[in-house]
Amino acid sequence: MPLVVFCGLPYSGQSRRAEELRGALEAEGRVVHVVDDASVLGAEDATVYGDSAREKALRSALRASVERRLSRHDVVILDSLNYIKGFRYELYCLARAARTPLCLIYCVQPGSPSPGPQVAGVVESRAPDVRVSWRPRAEEGGKPPAAGPGVRGDCLATGSVVNGAVPADVPRELGCREVEAADFPALATSEKEKSADCASGAAFSPELLEALMLRFEAPDSRNRWDRPLFTVVGLEEPLPFAEIRSALFENRAPPPHQATQSQPLASGSFLHQLDQVTNQVLTGLMEAQKSAIPGDLLTLPGTAEHLLFTRPLTMAELSRLRRQFISYTKMHPNHENLPQLANMFLQYLSQSLH
User: Fold this and answer.
1) For the segment 143-183, what is each residue's pLDDT rounded down to a tens digit?
2) Phi first, then psi: what are they for 30, rounded to 5°?
3) pLDDT tens, 42-66?
4) Do the beta carbons of residue 3 and residue 95 sit within 8 Å?
5) Which pLDDT belongs to residue 266?
6) What whole-number distance in Å separates Cα of residue 302 and Cα of residue 14?
7) Distance between terminal CA atoms of the chain?
8) Which of 69, 182, 188, 292 holds its CA 20 to 30 A away from the CA of 323?
9) Residue 55: exposed, middle, or buried by beta-carbon count in 10 A (0-12, 13-18, 19+)?
10) Strands 229-233 and 130-132
11) β-bridge mates for residue 230, sequence order
12) How far is CA 315 from CA 158, 279, 287, 341, in A?
C-alpha cells in the first residue's frame, strides 16, 4: 500500500493533517500506520534537530521504521519535518523497491506568501491555499472522482489548483522566499497552530527555528521523488482527499531499477552449457590465432560467425569479455538459444574487440 510523506517546518500543521488523513483512510476500512518522531524517540524532543549526529540517527530510525511497515496491504504515513531532499529521495527509493505508490504533502505556515508563481495552464479556483500537482484519471476523462464512504463531501469539493502532467519547465512549487526567516513569524504563531505539531509539549527555540528555515529544502514537483506533490497552506482549508486518494490508489508504483531486481532463475544445465560453450570458444580462438596473420577471419568448427583477426589476443582479455557475456546471459536466460550460444559469443567478441 502507498507511502504518504509529510513535509514542512515546525508549527505548520503536519501532525494535524496526518491525523485527518488517517481518520479518512481508516473510515474506508484501510489499515494505516503513522510513523513520527515520538514513536521513534519515545517522546517529542525538539533539541534533536540542533545536533547533527542525533538528527542523522533520527532519520535512520524513521527510515527503518517506514521500511518495516511498508507493504502492499497497509498505508504508511510519515509525520516528520522531512526537509532534506536527499532523505525524501531515500523514501522514494523505499517505495520504489516495495513497488508501491507514494505522495508528498507539503504543509506551509499560514503567515508565508502564496505558494509560488502561477504556472501556465493552471487554473486557480476559490481556495488558493491548496496546490496540487496531480490530476486524477477520472478528472482527465471529464468525470469527478467518486467520494469514499469515510470522506466528507465538503472535502471533496475543495477548490484546488490542479496541474496534471508536470512539464519540464514547471517552476518550483514554492519560491525561495518561503524559507526565509522573515516570512515565518515563528514567535507570533498562534497556540492553535503550535498544538497541532507539539501536542506532547516539545518546543522549538527561535534559534533552532531560524536554523531549520535556512537549511530547509522545499519540495519541487519537477523531481520524481517529490511527485505527486500536494501543497497546503494553513489549517483552515480541508485536505484534497479526492486527489490524494486518486494519487495513492490509482497511480502506478514507480518502476524499480533493474540493478535491484533478483536475477531470473535459470536451470543448472543452462549455466553449465553456457560455461562449457564459452570456454570452448576461447580455447579455439587461442589455437586459431597462433597461425593467423592480421586480416584473417578466424573460424571455429560448428559456428557460422567469424572473428576478424587484427592483433594477438590475450587470455586475460578474452576471459574478461567471457565473464561479461555470462553475466548478461544469466540475467536473460533463453533455452531456445542454446544451439546458438557459440555464434552469439563470437558476435559479442567481434563487437567488443572492434
Assistant:
1) 444 444 443 333 333 333 333 444 344 334 333 333 343 34
2) -95, 150
3) 887 889 999 999 999 999 999 999 9
4) yes
5) 52
6) 69
7) 49
8) 292
9) middle
10) antiparallel
11) 105, 132
12) 70, 11, 11, 20
What 3-state DSSP class applies to 103? Answer: strand
DSSP-assigned letters across all residues of 1-43:
--EEEEE--TTSSHHHHHHHHHHHHHHTT--EEEEEHHHHHSS
What residues form DSSP beta bridges with 32?
Answer: 75
Q: Say if residues 322 and 330 touch (Cβ distance below 8 Å).
A: no
Q: What nine digits make up the cell of 109?
A: 505556515
Is there a contact between 244 and 103 (Cβ–Cβ < 8 Å)? Answer: yes
Q: What is the pTM of this model?
A: 0.56
Residue 275 amino acid letter:
D
Question: 66, 91 in Cβ contact below 8 A?
Answer: yes
Rounded to whole angstroms, the Cα distance separating 267 from 290 reads: 36
Could you give the CA distance from residue 241 to residue 24 in angstroms, rounded to a whole number?
8
Q: What value does the mean pLDDT of the chain take?
A: 76
* β-bridge partners, 307: 298
Q: Between the CA of residue 103 and those of 39, 189, 254, what are the distances in Å?
A: 21, 27, 11
- Measured between alpha carbons, how far is 255 from 35 in angstroms, rounded to an integer? 25
Closest by CA position to 178, among listed 128, 230, 112, 129? 112
